[in-house]
Design goal:
With about 500 residues, the chain is α+β, with helices and mostly antiparallel strands. The chain contains eleven helices and 23 strands. About 20% of the residues lie in helices and about 35% in strands. Strands 1, 2, 3, 4, 5, 6, 7 and 8 form an eight-stranded mixed sheet that branches.
Amino acid sequence: MIEFYGERVNTVDSDFLDLPLRALAEAALSVARSGGATHADLRVHRVRSQSLALRDGGVQAAVDGVDAGLAVRVLVDGTWGFASHAELTADTAAATARQALEVARTLRPLNRDPVLWADEPVYPDAVWVSRYDLDPFAVPTADKVAILTDLSQRLLAADGVDHVTAHCVQVKEQTFYADLAGSTITQQRVRIQPQFEATTVDQAAGVFETMRTLAPPTGRGWEYLATDDHWDWTGELAALPQWLAEKAAAPPVVAGPTDLVIDPTNLWLTIHESVGHATEYDRAVGYEAAYAGTSFATPDLLGSLRYGSDVMHVTADRTDPHGLATVGFDDDGVAAQSWDLVRDGVLVGFQVDRAFAPRLGLPRSNGCAYADSAHHVPIQRMPNVSLQPDLHVDRSTADLIAGVEDGLYIVGDKSWSIDMQRYNFQFTGQRFYRIRGGELAGQVRDVAYQGTTTDFWGALEAVGGPSTWRLGGALNCGKAQPGQVAAVSHGCPSVLLRGINVLNTRTEGGR
């Protein structure tokens, strides 16, 4: 009997289920078993994508793509072997398994650190599908372009807006996983990211300014853009020209230590870089070092590192209904879970997969293995990493602002920089409002905030309540060599931090 995990709203597409999934698994796993593998898995992975781009209401690009294939991993004498192929036939699956076995045998003499593999229950005939109302790939491209064109033209018609760009990325990802233990797991998930950006040009001064919408990418379907039910597109696009005009005319910020109220639309990225990547176990032990470095948060500090103030509670979660990293099972066949990374300001957890869990002394993986293609090996990837709100006092953003005599309120993300150990960083944003006497007093510009991870989070005085909590995120988190890209969400409330160092970016740039 097929068991559905989570709230079943949709079903896996029939054209994926019609592929010879079971035959591929039987062919590959029988070869792996006879070849002496202690663990082996076959993964059929298909990713369909569409990217639409418009400028000033005219279509610039409409790009459709499909990446599909099968992958076989084997574990022989504690050594991995991996191989993949684009052809989905039983003969190819068997040949790919033989190639994976040969890779493992070739590498075995060089392996001084045999893989330990954490146990996991068996999940026969499991199916999981993400929650969405309207499959974006069931909507004609012309209809999608029409909505993007209409919204672009509304924005372009506003006074002071000289140019408008619009982009929309849609992805449907389908996987079939089977292993020697008996798990067979079929999954399908959908994600989308619409975005509009307005530009105003000062011809006399020879300068320009931009501002974009703040809607995050999300694990939803086309309903996300087709209506205002999940994001107020009508309201935001109507307000954007005025915000942009205020930004263009705003005075420069005065640099120095400043109290900050940070909106979730900005803070999610700081969480991603300073907490999400820093608590990846492979990075913390130096296994992942070539691509963007290691981590200051090493395992010997587990349970003792003061990451932030007492109000800092960060969770990892693979189960949030519309999270970008939400799945039913990871690419090691591990069921999705949630757990703490930072509790009461102290480092209490890491992200692991089945190979790293035993190294940390855990009896089971917390389900963080993912590959972005059949032609890439699964690696430890980030779950949805989120800062929790205050569940006792539902402070609003206005409440937090009211507690600041002289400071800044920051909305929306923009550029960022962080060092190779996830410790020293700098972030900018879309809009910056001066706070005077607990009230907003107009925009300022040329703002960046800077700090070290522990000093920044240690300055966290208060977090907003559940009413301020919002899920942000990105479709393009990069890691590994060869490089892989993963989608991940980060939820957070509005927050109040004291005495954060603020830079004037124009002055810092020598202008």
